[in-house]
Amino acid sequence: MTDLADLPAWDALKTHAATLRDVTLRTLFAADPDRFARLSFAFGPLLADYSKNRITAETLGLLTELAAARNVESARAAMFAGERINRTENRAVLHTALRNRDPAGVVPVEGADVMPEVRRVRDRLKAFAEKVRSGAWTGATGKAIRHVVNLGIGGSHLGPMAVAAALEDSRRADISLDFVSNPDRAQIEDVLKGLDPAATLFIVASKTFTTVETMANAGAAKDWIVTQLGAGAVTKHFAAISTNTDAAAAFGLSPDAVFPMWDWVGGRYSIWSAIGLPLIIGCGYEACDQLLAGAEAMDRHFETAPLEQNLPVILALIGVWNVDLLGMAATAILPYDHRLRLFPAHIQQMDMESNGKGVTMDGRPVAVDTGPIVFGGGGSDSQHSFFQLLHQGPRVVPCDFIIAARGAANGGGKSRDLLMANALAQTEALMKGRTAAELRGVAAELVPHRVFTGNRPTTTLMLDEVSAYTTGMLIALYEHKVFVQGVIWGVNSFDQWGVELGKELAKSLEPAVTGGPLADKALQGRDSSTAGLVAAYLKAKGSP
Ligand code: F6P
Fold it and tell me: Which of 65, 213, 296, 353 is catalytic?
């Protein structure tokens, strides 16, 4: 594959970027009263305003030419068609099949349609969740399940946890939902403190069923159930989701409570799979179906719209422009809605684990910067925390503001107006800044401190409300954006080899930190920092 930096389309973008270097957003807005209309996009309940980015219509045209030169359309078709586009793991990438709700939909992977199995698992999830919700599935003592605890990490945790927060208004008040990921016993013990074991169902969510953190928490939960209710109770108090259904069965689970997923679903793209089980129990099947419906609507748009009218493509290209042509290394995700407060953490994993890559698909070092550093948090809280840097720090961080016109808790009224005013004010401040000449009555020595350079890019996504449908749409929008960026950068967005080395070293360090006869051997050949820290740890815990 040709290096991105060697493409004529890339050269054209570089030349164009140089012409815009001294053009500010203020100037661009002043020059074109229709800028918002030209550089915004409405798609169903979602309005995307990207006019506060340092782009012009010409920028978007050149970026679209780049997307065409990188064959984004054929890459997109290959993904939807179930080709093995995750080449380093030799897998198809079909999270889109999981939200295909067309009863006649066919998605073949090498000739075999995956949809009958997808529908079969959906039906099983629906039936199982209904049994739990109705009390037909009881704990070992005959009590109805009233607490659900999800044990997972990464994509088996962040996605369901973020969506559970988004769907809070559909949640059954009499079924509690907790998410445990940290193998620090403090987390699970804090959660278990308030729970009645006879009414608790644990869901072990792990694509591989080998992830050490999740397995440690599953072991702790099993011990708790066995101590409280006896070994025979395990089958009634555990469910599992995994591609490794044999390991789940070996854990002692009832086959009725083991739900498969497939190697063609990446962990960070798995919220649409059986990984959604805690949501189906907590919020009901209908809400979860609407989540799929919103994502499916975004899929159809992404799959069929021409590049220049395709929202995930447009946002992806603006992201590439910010990272590579304007040299902005990070991006912040700032939802101004309490229900979406956990959304940034989910998108952070999805984006950074997908595009945080340093080699191209064919194994050569990338010639340009790839995935940005993604961070964020609830907009209101963040305003009073890290926004100082966003407004006046020397590094410019493009931001996504996410707001909903209607809010939970009776729509919002005044409180919604307050959120809206603040979110829009931030985008205005970041765009316009404030010059020294605009400062009135400020002591001369304070002027430099009170000036805002502005010219800082933001994109605003406005939803009509935070519903299951819009949440599905929003997550799918970001998934496809990340996919398109991966294609442009020429990386494999669907592997995650970068997480392996640390896992391997942790395994080999375990005997060292445990102490005892094998400790010395485990430390042999290790650097003095690691060895010194291990020694300090052993001393602190009183190991010889
Ligand atoms: O270590 C990273 C990772 O593999 C993520 O990609 C994944 O979401 C997470 O761990 C959890 O994996 P699993 O679902 O197999 O337990």
Answer: 353
